[in-house]
Write a structure and sequence with these properties.
107 residues, single chain, mainly alpha
């Protein structure tokens, strides 16, 4: 919700760049790295240094888990589409949809 309310054009550009890199990722490790960049950029939209620090800490501690989880997934397209949908809601300043999409992503 906060990201949709606070995101500026630079924030949106960083998230879109991360999504484009996710789409072009040549390996699982690359994809996880770019997904990490998306999540950090999303946290930065909230304008909370505490939240950004939390995101960075969680991302680092769960990186190996994500790589194992994604080995069982034939493609990353579903996750990338979800990231794009979240970004689209943020671009529209639709905090209700952005929040719902984030909750769906975390399931």
């Amino acid at each position: 919700a906060y990201a949709a309310e606070n995101a500026g054009s630079k924030d949106i550009d960083r998230m879109q760049d991360a999504i484009e890199k996710e789409k072009a990722a040549a390996s699982l490790e690359d994809w996880v790295q770019y997904a990490h960049l998306f999540h950090i950029a999303l946290g930065e939209c909230c304008k909370s240094s505490i939240l950004v620090s939390l995101f960075k800490s969680l991302e680092e501690s769960t990186r190996k888990y994500k790589q194992e989880e994604m080995k069982n997934d034939a493609s990353f397209s579903d996750r990338i589409e979800k990231h794009q949908a979240i970004l689209d809601a943020i671009k529209q300043k639709d905090s209700v949809s952005a929040s719902k999409l984030m909750k769906d992503l975390l399931k």
